[in-house]
Batch of 2 targets.
Target 1
Amino acid sequence: MLDKKLVMLAEYAEFHVNINSVVGGGFKNPNDALVIGNRAIELGFTSTIGIIHDGDGQLKPLAGDEAKVYYAMNHRRKINYSRFDHFQEAIAEGRPNDWRCRAGSRYLYICENGLVHYCSQQRGYPGVPLAGYTTADVKREFLTAKSCSPNCTIGCVHKISYIDHWRAPQTSMVSPGVSVAGRGRRRLYW
C-alpha cells in the first residue's frame, strides 16, 4: 500500500520530496526504515534517517538491529536538503553532544495555545504568549545554555542551531522541566 502511494507521489509531485525514516524506541521491525529509504531513492526522492527520542526528547542509544539500520542508511551516498546531521552519530552511540542549542531564539516551538516553548519536549519554557515574545527574549535565549542539550535528539533544533556552533558563547543556563504531550503546534525558524 505504501509503495503504491510513493510511486504515485513520484509521478505527480511538483515539489521536492524527502522521505525521513526513524529508528529507535523498539520498533518491531527497524529494517522497514531501510527498505522504505532505499525505495525512496529508487523513485528519485531524497531519504534521511532520524533517531527517535524518549518522552522527554532525550537520548536513548540504538540497540542491535536499530543501529545497523541507522548506519546503513546514514552511510549511503545521497543528496538531500541538509547534511547537518552529524550530531546523530553520538546519539546512536549513547554519547552526549557538545553544541549550542538556540531554541527560543533561532527555533521557536509554538503550541496550540499560542505560547512559545523551546521545543516540543520542553513545553512550559519559557511558556509565554507569542504576541508578547520580544526581541529581548530572542536575544536572551540565544545566549542561554539549556541543561537538556547534551542529550537532546530534536533534529530540527540541532540543524537550525548548527550555524552558530562557533559563535556567541552561551553565558547563562536554564534547566527546563519534563515534557507535556500536545498537538496543534507550529515551528518558526529565524
Target 2
Amino acid sequence: MKLQNRIALITGGGRGIGRAIALAFAREGAQVAVAARTLEQVEQVAREIGAQFSTVALPVVCDVSDVASVEKLFREVGERFGRGPDILVNNAGIAESAPLTKTDDELWQRHLAINLSGTFYCTRAVLPEMIERGWGRIINIASIAGKIGAPYIAAYSASKHGVLGLTRSAALEVAAKGITVNAICPGYVDTDMTTRGIENITKKTGLSADQAMASIKKMSPQNRIIEPEEVASLALLLATEEGRGINGQAINVDGGSVLF
C-alpha cells in the first residue's frame, strides 16, 4: 500500500472532494483524520472508512478560520495517533457569489478567513513536525478560479488566488526538507457546492436545473463536470513517493477549461 504507516489529515473531510480523498488515502493504508464543522458528516465518513478498510478514522470538529480550533485539531490528531500528520489536505472551503458592488464585508472576510487563512493556519501548524521528520506532503485544494477571474465571484477568486501564492511560497521554503506543497485546481465538481451553484443560477436566470447544468458542462471542452474521485486520484499521487518531484505546482483538473 502506497500510504502505509502515514497519517493523513483532511479538512473539509465530511463530504465531496474531502470525503473522496479520505477514502482514497485509507484504501492505500493511511491512518486518516477527517475534520469539518459538522460532526455528523465526519462521523459518517469515519464509519465508511471503518467499514471498508482495516483502519479506524478519527472524526474531529474544526473551524479552520479559528486559530484556537485549528490548534485543538492538531492536538487531537497528535493524541490519537501519537504524532502529527505526515500528509495535510487543506480542503475546507466555501464558495458564494455576489456582484462586486454587493459584496459586503462579511462575505469578503468569510472567504478570506476560511479559504485562505484556514489554509495558512493548518499549514503553519503542521510544518514544524514535518520539518523535524524530514518528510511531509501538503495538498491545497484551490480552484481554477485561483488562476482566472469570473463575474460575481470576486471574494472566492481572490481567496483562491491567495492559496496559490501561499502554496508556491511554502513550497520553496521547504523544498530541501523532504516536504512538497502543491495545489489542485478543480473546475466544476459533482459536489454540493456545484448543486448550490445550479440552484443560484436557476433563481437568477429562470433556467431549469437541467439547463443550468448543461451550461456548466459547456464550460469544459469535455462537456462534463469532474467527479470527486478524479481529484482524489491526483491527491493520492501528490501524497506518495511517486509524486515527490512535484512541488509548488497548481494542477488543473477541469477537462481543459484553463490551459495554464
